[in-house]
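Hi V.,

You were right to ask for the full record rather than a summary. Here it is.
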Amino acid sequence: MSDPEKDYEVGYGRPPKHTQFKKGQSGNPKGRPKGAKGFNASLQRELETKITVREGNREVKISKAEAAARRFVATALKGDMKALALLARFDADLSGRLDSDAEDAALSDTAEPVDYDILRHLFAEGGGDNATIDEVETDNDGS
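Predicted structure:
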């Protein structure tokens, strides 16, 4: 043996020089096999496969993804609130409308006259002062 090999100690985390990777050579020269694509590709292939589903008296072939979507929507329509909330999040258009309606209601600075009538009625029954409601009403009108 030559002198550099005698100085090199072989042990844990220090494999023999002749078994180490050579410079410029890949650790996996053959690479990934062509058939192996990863989890996402496998999931996509599985969701695209067709299954037979019974609709009333007839059988229909649909993809597994479509069957899952139908089950999801059916669960939401039966009243499952978690499924309904998820459905609203998936449907960007519906979700956007719901969010904007909620924001509009929360940020509304102007009350309708019907609201003031309800408040007057409540304060009148409880012995409240109607003058404070009238002051609020005039403040909202911009005067």
